[in-house]
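> call design_seq(struct)
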């Protein structure tokens, strides 16, 4: 059978070649060897997962990445919750501290001998900051103020038990 005849058979789908006909087909025309698709391609069409080991391999390979992503997501959510809790605590603590420190300032000033009638506490309407104003009317109060500033803040801020 000539090469041209074999091609025509293949094109028309009538390629029923005998084994001895294969000897005449040159190697550069492998498509002429069989008119039907290879058996492996039939398996592929029947079973979509013809190679399950590849799928498992892909899953096994991607599992660490997936767990890493899940871990990152979980950590991020935890971080956001912690941050929100931290800020809420900080705001509460600041408000309590402001009230406590105003009270403490008055106590310390009392202890230092400056009467409460000379101490005026105010809350800023814009920032909410607590201010303590001390009226210094007599000249000797300046000396007392100098002595006061050295340890007043230490007592008021850093020694809550004082």
């Amino acid at each position: 059978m000539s090469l041209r005849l074999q091609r025509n058979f293949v094109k028309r789908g009538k390629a029923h070649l005998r084994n001895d006909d294969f000897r005449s087909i040159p190697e550069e025309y492998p498509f002429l060897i069989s008119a039907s698709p290879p058996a492996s391609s039939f398996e592929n069409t029947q079973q979509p997962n013809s190679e399950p080991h590849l799928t498992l391999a892909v899953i096994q390979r991607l599992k660490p990445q997936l767990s890493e992503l899940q871990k990152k997501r979980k950590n991020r959510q935890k971080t956001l919750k912690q941050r929100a809790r931290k800020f809420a605590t900080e705001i509460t603590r600041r408000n309590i501290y402001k009230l406590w420190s105003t009270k403490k300032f008055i106590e310390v000033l009392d202890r230092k001998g400056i009467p409460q009638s000379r101490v005026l506490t105010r809350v800023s309407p814009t920032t909410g900051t607590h201010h303590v104003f001390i009226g210094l009317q007599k000249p000797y109060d300046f000396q007392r103020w100098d002595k006061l500033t050295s340890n007043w803040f230490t007592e008021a801020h850093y020694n809550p038990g004082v």
